[in-house]
């Protein structure tokens, strides 16, 4: 099955506006916002290791209609979670977190903004609606966080930059939600640019845009439709293993993050890590980081073939050394590798389920979707969803 665009941007906004009017009385003065989802092309599990990532923003994501209120009440509603109704609280209240509640994301952002000293004294009301599949590694959560940051900035005329908003959105995820994630998702969503991926050094936050000069190829995202059950606990486990490896290495060499190591430095010092598993985790982080730099260079030189090979190597490393793939992701990627239209294919996001990203020859996409989808279904009993990705701009107010 091919899901290209669930609904166009205008349709989405118009239907959210209708709901806004129903829920909050009128649409007078209501403003329109958008934050994309993101897909990472290469550089996986490197962000929290102080390494490089190469993500891009998608052209679908989270839409929102928002308006400032004269009192101090905040009202939040999501058309994706109709059963939960309108969440209502005051800006003065200590913001309580409830388990499994989507509104924790906007609440967390509001909390971090206020704790960062931004004066938000009035309430506001928002209707959210999104078309990113949840828990698929396309960053639906970061998209809600970043769109909320943009809403707060615009409604309250705050002076923060998009980079500040990105950092506060990540803090909301770390400190309020309790997921100790790196900065890749929020950064790509806030700073994305049409037809470009972003090479981001997560240690220094230096970044450069790199145009995706794909003429004969397209980016295809495939959702395994396997939800990432244990992702969060395994995610934190991997972070722990990498931290342990780093501490050992620091006994011998002066480094602040695994991302600072060259392959040679890693190979000549790795015996101090001691533990075999931790060594493999660190190896992935170091090699993946270097692989990302090579891949970006290849793309700059118009060598898409080489970029694709490096994507394949990334998957192997995530499968064998980092051990974050699983049967569904491996089956989908192996089916893609067999197809003659495939330039490269790998898992994307945290892993354990969720999506793969592939570069596929444009004239073979239909056959790719048909054959890869069929093989995946035969081997796993699951249906994959395919999206031909358009690389879009970052979060913004729509005017
Ligand atoms: P996804 O799969 O989008 O949740 C997670 C982290 C990223 C990064 C990747 C692995 C969150 C919100 N994000 O992405 O920071 O570490 O895994 O590269 O957990
Ligand atoms: Mg998430």
From TrEMBL:
Mg(2+) binds at residues 141, 173. Catalyzes the transfer of the gamma-phosphate of ATP to D-galactose to form alpha-D-galactose-1-phosphate (Gal-1-P). The keyword Magnesium applies. The record marks 38 as: Transition state stabilizer. GO terms for molecular function: ATP binding; galactokinase activity; magnesium ion binding. This is Galactokinase. It is found in: Cytoplasm. GO terms for cellular component: cytosol. It catalyses: alpha-D-galactose + ATP = alpha-D-galactose 1-phosphate + ADP + H(+). Keywords: ATP-binding, Carbohydrate metabolism, Cytoplasm, Galactose metabolism, Kinase, Magnesium, Metal-binding, Nucleotide-binding, Transferase. Residues 104-192 form the GHMP kinase N-terminal domain. The active site is at 185 (proton acceptor). It comes from Propionigenium maris DSM 9537. Substrate binds at residues 44-47, 235. Its main location: cytoplasm.
